[in-house]
Specification:
alpha+beta; globular
Length: 150
């Protein structure tokens, strides 16, 4: 099982082209791709991706629906065996949703958590993005950028 290795911030292919063959990094990369693709935007599968517009991006989102949508998305990623945990913390005043999750794969457990802007190096910050710090059995896997401004 392999895919083309992507830069996790820009999501561009790493050049010269290399295949991602590490099973944990491969599943983590697939999770990032799924999180960056809003449902209804990929013409081959309109159900692929989180339902950002219908569920997440509301003034007062129903966190049970957001969690259910995130679990659905994670379980659809090839290589994810089960979702171990999902934690959602909504700061209503600033309208910021902090997300963390843990999934079990054939190669081990992947943990991901949103990272606040102040914890990131200045050259990585881009307006309108969220960032996931992903870790696996052998330590930190990397920092992945989420969706740009919608």
């Amino acid at each position: 099982m392999s895919d083309i290795r992507l830069d996790w911030i820009t999501m561009d292919p790493v050049l010269p082209a290399v295949l991602e063959t590490d099973p944990v990094r491969l599943v983590a990369q697939r999770i990032l791709v799924a999180l960056r693709t809003a449902a209804g935007t990929w013409w081959l599968d309109r159900d692929f991706g989180p339902r950002y517009f219908e569920t997440w991006l509301k003034k007062a989102p129903d966190l049970r629906l957001v969690e259910s949508d995130l679990r659905r998305l994670l379980l659809a990623v090839p290589g994810v065996l089960r979702v171990v945990s999902v934690t959602l913390v909504l700061d209503a005043a600033s309208r910021v949703l902090r997300v963390s999750f843990e999934v079990s794969t054939d190669a081990g457990v992947i943990t991901a958590a949103t990272v606040a802007g102040e914890a990131l190096p200045g050259d990585v910050l881009q307006a309108g993005r969220f960032y996931l710090l992903m870790s696996g059995p052998s330590g930190q896997l990397g920092l992945g950028a989420g969706l740009s401004s919608l």
